[in-house]
Write the structure tokens for this entry.
Amino acid sequence: MKRLFAAVLLCAAALLVQGQARAASKIPVIVASSVDTSEQNYMNVTYRKLVELAQKYSGDAFEFQLFPSMQLGDEQETVRAMQLGTIQISMLATNNYAPFAPSCGWVNMPYLFDTLEEFRALVDAMWDRNNEWAIREGGCRILSILDIGYRQLTTSAKHPVRRLEDAKGIKIRTPQNALMVSTFKALGLEPTAVSFSETFNALQQGVVDGQEGCFNNVVTLKFYEAQKYATMINYSVHSANFIASERWLQSLPEKERNALIRAGREAMLYERTKVAGMLEADDKLMREHGMELLGVVEDLPEWVRLGRTAWPKCYDVIGDGDAAKGRAVMEIVLAEKDALARK
């Protein structure tokens, strides 16, 4: 009996050592996220699929460690950490990577896309060129570009917005992104740039009266606790990037690197199949939490007309201070958009 017990202990010890050795041999991947782990959040839907596929294609080579709810800093801080090498992957809004890779800011141009399908087709057509800009300017490769409807407007109980005139004089939180600030100024509104990490507090404390962004964030980040009305202004597709440090990617063995890149693209395509259902659920949840959905603004053509007057300023932002460079970027994008429309 003693010999049998000893043998069992030896086997258990051997298995433990083997398990520790396998864990030690895995590639650690620190992933920063600006959202919590809500299953309704579109970024989490994509992240779970990306991990599944990356492990499948790499032979379970990675040890992913997710840090949600901005535990590693706000979205722009995580990009700086990636450039320093302390984070490998960040999940963040497209507009918060654009300051580091300005040419990629074309994705946020106001009133550029009439439909999500048009957005997706152009993202796919521009994929390689966009990643050239992302890597050269910001040092990070884009693994996925997700969409979750348009960036819309929510406001407090005192400020229902049905027309552009209703939004005049309201302090509206925008990201710390010059392109978006310029757009709201062109609309004649009062944008207040606030870090994403401070948005909930700014709404709750009345520092701002409303905010622009996707309705998915309103639900999963509980903005509904400080907002009463939801208005559709459809000014820009709300998208997020999954980015990876290019230096880190190039340090990986070829199989693992290719597995992660492939997983990112396929997870992005998977997320697209879930968007319609998530948008319907978001509307339902906002109503359940006491919000009133006002629909599309009655004078949308006026929003479009004025929003597009911001384009010259946007060229300056996309060109990182060089409007001619930004215009050249947009000429490439618009040429590809026109080519897709002719197909």
